[in-house]
Amino acid sequence: xxxxxxxxxxxxxxxxxxxxxxxxxxxxxxxxxxxxxxxxxxxxxxxxxxxxxxxxxxxxxxxxxxxxxxxxxxxxxxxxxxxxxxxxxxxxxxxxxxxxxxxxxxxxxxxxxxxxxxxxxxxxxxxxxxxxxxxxxxxxxxxxxxxxxxxxxxxxxxxxxxxxxxxxxxxxxxxxxxxxxxxxxxxxxxxxxxxxxxxxxxxxxxxxxxxxxxxxxxxxxxxxxxxxxxxxxxxxxxxxxxxxxxxxxxxxxxxxxxxxxxxxxxxxxxxxxxxxxxxxxxxxxxxxxxxxxxxxxxxxxxxxxxxxxxxxxxxxxxxxxxxxxxxxxxxxxxxxxxxxxxxxxxxxxxxxxxxxxxxxxxxxxxxxxxxxxxxxxxxxxxxxxxxxxxxxxxxxxxxxxxxxxxxxxxxxxxxxxxxxxxxxxxxxxxxxxxxxxxxxxxxxxxxxxxxxxxxxxxxxxxxxxxxxxxxxxxxxxxxxxxxxxxxxxxxxxxxxxxxxxxxxxxxxxxxxxxxxxxxxxxxxxxxxxxxxxxxxxxxx
Length: 540
Description:
Layout: H1 2-14, H2 17-34, H3 41-48, H4 57-82, H5 91-140, H6 144-160, H7 166-181, E1 183-184, E2 191-192, H8 206-225, H9 243-265, H10 272-285, H11 298-313, H12 315-321, H13 327-337, H14 347-350, H15 352-383, H16 388-407, H17 411-428, H18 433-456, H19 467-488, H20 496-512, H21 521-530
Antiparallel strand pairs: 1-2
Helix pairs in contact: 1-15, 2-3, 2-4, 2-15, 3-4, 3-8, 3-13, 4-5, 4-13, 4-15, 5-9, 5-11, 5-12, 5-15, 6-7, 6-18, 6-19, 7-18, 8-16, 8-17, 8-18, 8-21, 9-10, 9-11, 10-11, 10-20, 13-18, 16-17
């Protein structure tokens, strides 16, 4: 009950005219940027993150919540209208939603995605408000050894569970941990990996890393592969659903929420596996299974709800433990840290106005998104016609402007170019971005907790093994050994739905040329090269 009282106080903060304006502006900006082809929610947030630096922390995070929901909606719009998912979790939406659009039902696909996202986001945010304080109370009792174990679980889960290649996932994590080590060691005072460059003695700003990896790297990759000519966009009318559409959508919305939230809330989250689980579940339960693969509305409603519920669930470990499990949560964590605030068990006690204002703003942003963007869907679709040369030149310009504004230091522009080139090469060789950015953010904290645990035990390794941490290490071992163990299990021992979802993920990765958490723009670029437009003199 105390959580609900705190939430009411959060609404009092979020509903002031100034903060309400930030929420509306955030939704509009997030949608306008997120709807552009090849730009997923994480890249949208990374690109617009520097805009919030001049605001107070509460107003900035409220605007950030609006940008977040707007970017999510924009990503579903490109998936449906262009078959261009901005991230691997949106592949299912692209499969069924684009088939619906080609069949003349783009408006219905956009509507069920938007309303499903609203329903799932509202329920999941309510669960966040109820569960997060309880998790925070438990986390206060967690020892440094347990924290280190949980962070190790987050590292292994993000690289192993969500990646189609564990070696590439671990390589990306290694890059992130290396970047996170740059700077002065707080214990010894020695400089590490600075190569005598004084500008990076304090480390590399996480905002520069996020903008470089997501925005610059993605812009370079997509600009190098996509056609210059604007893509033909499927016309969109007013998104409205008839009675049959409602009847076929409401159960997938609820089931998607139930599947997505738990996956996001555990420190091994991510929306990829639950969205495919939702898709397989809806395919099995549907009264119209023959429509799947040809534009089934359940195949859009369920996964979109799952995606949003998982994203809201991912805020539970981010706020209570300081552990992001998705790219979006990682960049949100970077935003909070840029104000000198450390998410973790004490956050709910030290910054209650900020936390509850943020949670309340998620409700507001979700509602504003639905009210504004359903009528504006045809306008957002027209933004897709922007020529690619202007689009990616603009992205690079605003990325550079944002990186410079973070510290007003021209050296950050050189770092941005280097990290952007790194992001480009990671996409070129199929390395996922998420493990890298999580390594940058969590690496220093994992090192700090490891040192604290060893100091408490006077340097004995046994200090790392406490009751909770031993359980976590066992889970880590199961994650690493599961692919080997599964080969020796009878097929019936593996849950059929999970097995089918795994097969669906592998098929999607093969079809779209994906490594998990890597943008699917590679697939779109390949399609553009294979199918040149004879009317386009510039070619692909």
